[in-house]
Structure formats: C-alpha cells, structure tokens
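Hey, I was hoping to borrow your eyes for a little while. There's a protein on my desk that I can't quite get my head around. The fold is given in discrete form, as structure tokens running alongside the sequence. I'd be grateful if you could look everything over and explain what you see. Here's the protein in full, and shout if anything looks odd to you:
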Amino acid sequence: MTSLRGLDLNLLLVFEALHETRSVSRAGQRLGLSQSATSHALARLREACRDELFLRAPVGMTPTPVANRIFPDIHQALESLRHSVEEARGFDPATSTRRFEIAIPHPLGPAFALRIRDAARAAAPGVTLRFDTRTLADDAPALMREGLLDCAVDWIPAEDDRFVNRRLFDDSLVIAAREGHPRARPGMGWRDLAQEEFVRCHRRAPERRPKALSGKLWELMAESRLTVSEYLEVPFVIGRTDYLGVLPKSMARIAEEQFRMIIVPVPGPAIRIPIWVVWHEGRRRDAGHAWLRALVHREMQGAAVEAGLLAEATSPK
C-alpha cells in the first residue's frame, strides 16, 4: 500500500483476521461480519494492494509472499492502536480483549502455559494469550524491544539494562530411571553413575546456556549414545530402556506419579538454576502488562510451590 488516503482502515482488521485464521468464514465470525461482507472486504484489499493476498488451498487460504511481508507491520500497528485505546479507557481484565505473547522455553513450558491460560480465562475471558515454548528463543529480546513479545520465562536473564529480570524460583536437576531399573536407587554416587548410559538433550549454545549446566554431570553424559531435542522426550526414552536421564526437579513429581519413575539426587551440592520472568522496561507503566506480569508471577510460583521448589509464593515487586 503506497497510500492510506481513501482506504477504509477497517480493512486492516479484516486482513489481520484473514492472515491469522486462514479462513473467510472464521475471519468474519471473529469480526462479527457475514461471509459475503468479509469476501467483499478481501476484494477491496486485493484492489488496494494490487495483489491476491490470499489464495485458495485444499485447507483454508494461503497468504501470498506480499501478505506475509506486510502482516507483521499491520499486526504491530493494530496492536499499538488497541493498546492506546485500552490505556485511554483503563485496563479492566473482565472486559479487555487485548492479546499478549509469552515465551516459556522452560522444559515444562507447555504445562506452565496451560496453567497461565486457565487462570487468565477465569479472570479475563476476553483476553487472548499466545505462547511459544521454543528452547532456543534467541530472538526473544529483539521481539520484546519491538513490542511483539510481552514477556519470557527463561533460565537466561536478559543482559541489556533496558530489560527487567524478576527471579521466580530456583529449579535444580535430578536423575531419573524407569521403575524396575536393575541398578537405579537413591544414594548412587559418581562411580555408580559412571557405569550407566544416559540419554541427554542437545545443549544450548554457550551464550544461551545456564552456568550451572556444566561440570561433572555433563562430562559424565558427554558420550551419550542417544541425544534428544527436548527434556519432555527424556521420560519417553528412559521408560523403555535402562538409560538414565537428567531432568529438572520441577518435572520430578510428574516423573514419579505419572511415569512411575525412580528419582535419584545428583551427588554433591544441588545444581540450582534460577528461573526468571523477563520483560522490557518500556512496558512498566502499561496497566495491562502489569496485570499480565502479576498473573505469570503468581501462577509460576504456585507451580513451584506444588513441585516443592518454593516454600510459599511471594508478591511481585
């Protein structure tokens, strides 16, 4: 679009809904428009952009390269407008329709995401939360600077002084084995562990690796014959083999209760891994963002209390 003159800005809402739903009917339902009105809006968008924008496919609509190229800018602009209007009226969770993006690279990211989602639905039924649990979310700081990501729950704090890092709890590491493993038992020492084979996860790049994830335990696993992508895959493997696996302590109760696994403490001092919620300083005065931060803080600490990692939850500072 070379000019906004004469363009009905409501068409941008239609474009955003079409790109996100990949469906004329679902986009119309989201916006309260009939299918014919949505199709008419798409025709006007095509004329304004001089591009087809969305092509029919066997399942839904496929965006063209032009649509994919302009979507991030249009989406960000609309989110900024929604935020501005909502801030002018004040943030009310019960009536808000804001959207928030949260990254949770922690191994239990999917479980934490569902917990936060359920709590948000109870307090703010119109608010939409989107989660990304990629392990290597190296672009998270840039996305937070640009306003495309609201906060991240990670074991790597942001180093830029424009970011705020709030410590949620300390996770740690344990060793897990299947029920009935012929040698696994509490109290195994380094000599015992050196006789076993391990399944391990791919390690993060050095700059994205917690300092605690080094030392004797990792040397022991260096020759692992089986390497997986995510910690959630480890119970699947050790439940079917005599491999041992290393898990965050936050997963220990799940491993014991749902997979009936034996949990073995790592010899020596506990390997502590601080878990942080990270957000950009520019969102400090955003009332909606403050609500989101308090929600994430409360639910993450509640999960930590249930996992035995924290004696009691604290209020965010």
Q: What stands out?
A: The longest strand covers residues 163-177. The chain is about 40% helix and 20% strand. Residues 171-271 form a domain with the D-Maltodextrin-Binding Protein; domain 2 fold (CATH 3.40.190.10).
